[in-house]
């Protein structure tokens, strides 16, 4: 993965996080509206659950993008050969000093 792709992921899902906040506010407004039919109440609760699920997924995607950022192809290509050898060339458990 490259930096440009991660930039796009963070931009798009950052915008999505903002929209989900607006959706959550709208659902809260609808919950406060009275009278609601049983079908309307059921649908509002269903949509509220979807928004909460979406918020959790977007948060996780953004966390993963942050976690991946130091390991993009752009970062690896900008690293010196010596540093790459120290980072990736030694088997696990070997002393790197």
Structural notes for this entry:
- It is a single chain.
- The protein is mainly alpha-helical and 97 residues long.
- The protein has one domain (3-89).
- The chain is built from four helices and no strands.
- It has helices at 3-32, 38-68, 73-77, 81-89.
- α1 (3-32) runs antiparallel to α2 (38-68).
- The longest helix is centred in the middle third of the chain and has 31 residues, at 38-68.
- The radius of gyration is 22 Å and the shape is rod-shaped.
Write the layout of secondary structure elements.
Elements: H1 3-32, H2 38-68, H3 73-77, H4 81-89
Key features?
rod-shaped, 77% helix, 4 helices, 97 residues, mainly alpha
Question: Fraction of residues in helices?
Answer: over 70%
- The unreliable regions are none
Main sheet record:
none
* Class computed from helices, strands and strand pairing: mainly alpha
Dominant shape? rod-shaped
Number of domains: 1
Order of helix and strand elements from N to C terminus = HHHH
Ends apart, CA distance between termini = 29 Å
Which percent range describes the beta-strand content? Answer: under 5%
Number of helical segments? 4
User: Count the strands?
Assistant: 0
Could you report the average pLDDT, rounded to the nearest whole number? 88
Radius of gyration: 22 Å
Oligomeric organization of the protein chains: single chain
């Amino acid at each position: 993965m490259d930096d440009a792709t991660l930039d796009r992921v963070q931009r798009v899902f950052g915008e999505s996080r903002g929209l989900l906040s607006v959706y959550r506010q709208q659902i809260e407004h609808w919950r406060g509206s009275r009278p609601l039919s049983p079908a309307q109440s059921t649908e509002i609760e269903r949509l509220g659950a979807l928004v909460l699920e979406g918020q959790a997924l977007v948060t996780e995607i953004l966390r993963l993008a942050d976690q991946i950022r130091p390991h993009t192809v752009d970062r690896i290509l900008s690293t010196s050969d010596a540093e790459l050898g120290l980072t990736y060339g030694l088997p696990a458990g070997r002393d790197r000093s």
